[in-house]
Amino acid sequence: MPPIRRMNGAGRSRSMPFERLFPRSSGIFGPDQPMRDESEQNISLNNIITAHYGPPSSIYGVLNPHQTNPDDNGIASWTKEPPGDIVEPVYTPESGQYAFLLRKVKCDSGHNKLEINSIVVQSAHLKRILARVMDGYPGITMSDEGVEFSNPFKPFIHRWEMFAEARNNESEAEAKAHVDSLYEVLATELNDVITCKTNLVLYGMITFNMLWTIFEPGYIVFYTVDGRKRAFQLERSGHGLDLKAYKIYAVYIDYNAYEFGYRKYNLFIPVFEGIKPIMSLPVILYVCYYDKDTLC
């Protein structure tokens, strides 16, 4: 009977401080691999230098995490090195210093380029500013430790003018540096969409592919039901998978002779070519009415 190989470190008890754990192998040796003497490590824990980081969210620059390839379980993580190497995760005291994280992934186009996947806001200054800008926007709260906005950054498209105004009105130096940095990143990333939306809305026009830029969650819209206009509150919207219609999920106030309450209702804008007047759409935004008094 062959001798039983001992597992590395088995039966030992070693007390190590919690400040630092050193990477080790699995500790299980192959049949042809000699066992390692623990004394060969010669590691002096007293000589470890603890890194000192700045206060959380104190750096107004940008840290760019990158997504790694999925593991065997299909799970990907974020690292501070470009894809291709095995690197340490970026969610460390080092990344915690930055006002926000700019997370990137490889483009699906296959051109070996990176595109912004999401932005994680960490700065207390940015959270304070964005709390005003995004006030009332469904699904967004600035009380979270790290607030994530995902591409295509719909909240910023919908509230861009308010964000720009808040940036211009900020007077505190550090907060201004933080918001300027975020604004520059988003202005570059969203320039084409914002410019297209602005030019279309200026003339009261819209295209089918740009409908999402004007239908902000929480808006009041009008839709004809049984020959009569009815007011709805928009909850969410998006293009259908077949791109044959733009679907709007909304609610309206109903009465059943006993009590008032909300009912869900789905609205549709059929696909159309070219540009079209916003006021000619089957679903009309209340904010687009020039004479709102006529609706009362």
Automatic annotation (TrEMBL):
UniProt entry keywords in alphabetical sequence: Membrane, Transmembrane, Transmembrane helix
Name of the molecule in the record: DUF7025 domain-containing protein
Keyword ATP-binding belongs to the record: no
Positions of transmembrane segments: 200-222
Alphabetized Pfam families for the sequence: DUF7025
Cleavable signal peptide: none
DUF7025 domain location: 200-284
Entry keyword Iron: no
